[in-house]
Amino acid sequence: MTNGKVWLVGAGPGDIGLFTIKGMEVLKNAEVVVYDSLVGQGVLSQIPAEARLINVGKRASHHTMAQEKINQVLLEEAQKGYRVVRLKGGDPFLFGRGGEELELLKANGIPYEVVPGVTSSISVPAYNGIPVTHRDFCSSLHIITGHKRAGKEYDIDFKALVDTKGTLVFLMGVSALSDICQGLLKGGMSPDMPAAILQKGTTAGQKRIVATVSTLPQEVARQGIETPAIIVVGKVCSLSENFAWYEELPLAGWKVLVTRPKSLISETSRKLREKGAEVLELPSICTEPLSDQERLYEAMEHLEQYRWLVFTSPTGVEVFFQEMAKREKDVRALGNIRIAAIGEGTKKKLREKGLFADFMPSVYDGDTLGKELGEMILEGEHILIPRAEKGNENLTAFLKKAGAVVEDVPTYATHYERSLLIDEKKEFEEGNIDCVVFTSASTVKGFAEGTEGIDYTKIKAACIGKQTKAAADSLGMKTYMAEKATIDSLIALVEDMKRSEETWN
C-alpha cells in the first residue's frame, strides 16, 4: 500500500476568519483529522463529515493523549495510505511540538507539509488594541512559554528578558502569573511597567485586564480570568484603551449559533461576523435530491403547458436545474413560463442561473405566496412547484382554491443532523450561546432533534418569519421575529436583541 501524507495545519487563535485559505483547502480534503482542544469551534465545524476524527486533547494540565502516542498515531494513519491533517491551535511550530511530530514521520519516509497558522501571541493582542511592536516603545518582541513543570523553578533568564526592553508575550502562563511577574521584578523591571492578561482572544469570550507588572496578579484575582489566556508585558499595553476596536463592533461578545443547511450558511455567518459576532455553524438539517425524480422528469417533458414555475427555496432551484441538466435541457426549455420565488434567497439563486423572478410575495412565506399568486392566476392555469418532500400544504391549497391546476412535485428530502464534534446541549447549559438564528421551521425541528432534553425556555431564538417563529414557540423558546424575511433583516434583529439585553443589564 502506498503511504499517505500528513499536513501539520495551524488553526489560528479561534476566530475562523483567521484560519488560512491553504489550511481550509487542506482540511476539506482530509480523510483523517487529528485535532486538539485549542482548535476553535468555527474551524472544527469545517471538518468534512466523512473524515475520521481523532481527539488528542492537549490543553494545559489536561492531556487526552501523550505526545509520543500522537506521533505514533500520525505515522500509523499515514502508513495506511490516508490523507492526515494534524490540526493544531495557533501555529504548529510555536510551542506546538510540531517539530517532534515531524521527526518520526521523517525517519519513516512519510511525506508531509506544514501549513503555518496565525499565532495568538500576535493576533490576540491585536484584537485587544495592543500592537506588539511600536517604534515609540520597543524594538523587539519575545515570545516565551509560561508553562512550568510542577515543583520546578523557571528555566528563564528574566534579567535578560528585562534588558531587551522589548514586548514580552508569555503563552500558557496563566497558572504561573505571580511567578512570572515576580521573576520580572527581580530581574530589574520597573513595578510600573504596563502588563495585561488577555482571555480567549478573537472569540466572544474575549476579555482583558490591563494593570502593571506589580499589580496584575491582584487584579486577576479580583476580576477573574479563564483559560486560554496570554500575558503581555511592555509599554505597548498602555495603548489598549485607545486602540481597542473589537468591542466597538455591534455584536462583539456575542456567540451566535447558525442553523441553516450547510450549503446556505456562509452568507449569514459572514454578515454576523462582520458585526463582530463569534459564529458557530452547526447545520441542523441537510438536503439531498430524491433518488426517484420520475415525476419531475415527466413534468419537464411538458414545460410548455405550465403558466407558472414556483420555487419555495434556494435548494429547490438548485435541484431543479441539476435535474434539467441530466435531461440535457437548459433555460430555453422554460419558454414563456413565468417564475415565482418565495423570498430573497430564492431570488438570488435564480439570478445565479441567469433568471429573474416575475413575482415575489409581500411577506416571504408559503401562505402569502399562495394567496397573492392565487389572485393573479386565471382559472385552469397550470402551475409547477418543485420543492421539498414535506412542504407547506397551504401553498397548494390556496392555489387550487383559486382554480389553478397544481403539480406539486417533491424533488429533495430534508434530513436532520447533529455535530459529532461540538456538544450543542453542553454549550447551552454552560451559557456559551447568546442566541440561535433560525431560517426555517425545519431548522428548528432539526435543532430540537440534536438537543433533546435541553431547557428550551432559556434559548433566545432569532426567527426569519412566522412559521419559523411558530416552530420555536412550540418548544417554549424566547422568540423574536425579523421585520422582513431576509437575511439582512435577520442580522438587524440579532443586533436589536443584543442592544435590548445590554439596556436591561
Describe the model.
- Strand 18, helix 17 and strand 19 form a beta-alpha-beta unit.
- The relative contact order is 0.09.
- The chain is elongated and about 90 Å long.
- The model has no long low-confidence stretch (mean pLDDT about 90).
- The strands form four sheets. The protein has a five-stranded parallel beta sheet, with helices on both faces. The protein has a five-stranded mixed beta sheet with strand order 6-7-10-8-9, sandwiched between helices. The protein has a five-stranded parallel beta sheet with strand order 12-11-18-19-20, sandwiched between helices.
- The chain contains 19 helices and 20 strands.
- Helix 3 crosses helix 4.
- With about 500 residues, it is of the alpha/beta class.
Q: Helical residue percent?
A: 25-40%
Give unreliable regions as ranges.
none
Radius of gyration: 27 Å
**Strands of the biggest beta sheet: in what spatial order?**
3-2-4-1-5
Net shape: elongated
Mean pLDDT: 90
What structural class is derived from the secondary structure elements? alpha/beta
The CA-CA distance between the termini, in Å, is 62 Å
Can you count the helices? Answer: 19
Strand tally: 20
Q: DSSP strand (E) fraction?
A: 15-25%
Major sheet size, sense and barrel closure: 5 strands, parallel
Can you give me a brief rundown of this structure?
α12 (314-326) links the parallel β14 (308-311) and β15 (338-341).
Write the layout of secondary structure elements.
Elements: E1 5-10, H1 21-28, E2 32-35, H2 41-44, E3 52-55, H3 67-79, E4 83-88, H4 98-107, E5 112-115, H5 120-127, E6 141-145, H6 158-164, E7 167-171, H7 177-186, E8 194-199, E9 207-212, H8 216-223, E10 229-233, H9 240-243, E11 255-258, H10 265-274, E12 278-281, E13 285-289, H11 294-300, E14 308-311, H12 314-326, E15 338-341, H13 344-352, H14 366-374, E16 382-388, H15 393-401, E17 405-416, H16 424-429, E18 435-438, H17 441-450, E19 460-463, H18 466-474, E20 478-481, H19 487-504
Parallel strand pairs: 1-4, 1-5, 2-3, 2-4, 6-7, 11-12, 11-18, 14-15, 14-16, 16-17, 18-19, 19-20
Antiparallel strand pairs: 7-10, 8-9, 8-10, 13-17
